[in-house]
Amino acid sequence: MWKLNTMNFLKKYYTKLILLIAVVSFIISLTIIIIKRNNREIVLVNYLQNYIINDKNYEISLELFSSEKSVEYFDQELITDTYLTDNNSLTNYCQLKLTSITYEKLDTNNYHYKIKFDFPMLGSDVSYFENVVLNIESNEEKLEIPIGNVIYLPNSETNFINVSRIKGIVNKINDMEMLCGVVVEFGKNDKVKITNIDLSLPYGNVSTANILEVEYDNISNNTELSTIIPNYNILNEEKNNLSLLLDKESNTYLIPFSYKKLFFTNQTAIIIEFEYLGSLYKEIIPPYCYFNSTNNYYEEYRQSL
């Protein structure tokens, strides 16, 4: 009898013990899941670019690669505000109008997002926004994404400059493909005198001291500028007063660029100031994509959820 009572007691004891262990294990597991969810990270990969805006093309199209599908950040119905600031989030440059968000699933854990915004028109002057951060706000979340630079270009004042052909010169600088200059073939122009050439880049310029008259077909897209221009250095700007007279059936010039820092870009507008019939004008050669790079120059950003 004693042995039977003892066995019943032990049986009840072990049953309660096993139940207690199961409950504790469940609580611990639930806690771990909650901790992981509250501290999970979303990884965003974004290519820093130069976004060139003008009166005909005022859309910013941003491409992001995300480590997960994020309702908190990329549900268009939940987004309350989108705007640009500088890199330190101190200056609010301008509000943006969100037009669309689309995505495709690349594999189990990665998504490709395309986010499009309308940029406001800013008037008649060239405007540069350097080291821009895109801010996306929803009711409970805020996402800050560095996107590169935004350049606003007004329409050209005239159509006096006739460009027949243009191509980019790409050299590799410190393992980065750089747009080092362009070759421009100007068609017949009626005694136009070019007095200055600039780029639509906040950190880039034209090395006017090294502009050369060349034959268009003698320069290839990957010609090393150092073989044509002695002591050429893409980081050293040599700016001189400029006077190029376009008075022939065709004038072709090699226009080398210089940069304040190495930054990947494959497009730029070219701003030409010139004199015609005694008056000064400004004309803009629109931005082109001069080359496509096989390298990935990107920044990776992590955002905790």
Strands of the largest sheet, in order across it? Answer: 6-7-3-1-19
End-to-end Cα distance: 62 Å
Residues in helices, as a percent range: 10-25%
Counting DSSP H or I runs of 4 or more residues, the number of helices is 2
Any low-confidence stretches, pLDDT <50, length ≥5? 1-7, 26-37
β-strand amount: over 45%
Can you lay out the helices and strands and say which pair or pack?
Elements: H1 2-38, E1 41-46, E2 49-54, E3 59-66, H2 71-74, E4 79-85, E5 92-95, E6 97-105, E7 111-118, E8 127-138, E9 142-153, E10 163-173, E11 176-186, E12 192-199, E13 204-206, E14 212-213, E15 244-246, E16 251-259, E17 267-276, E18 279-289, E19 299-304
Features:
5-stranded mixed β-sheet, 305 residues, 48% strand, 2 helices, disordered N terminus, mainly beta
Please give a structural write-up.
The structure is a single chain. The protein is mainly β. The chain has 2 helices and 19 strands. Strand 8 (127-138) and strand 9 form a beta hairpin.
Short description:
13% of the residues lie in helices and 48% in strands. It has 305 residues and is mainly β.
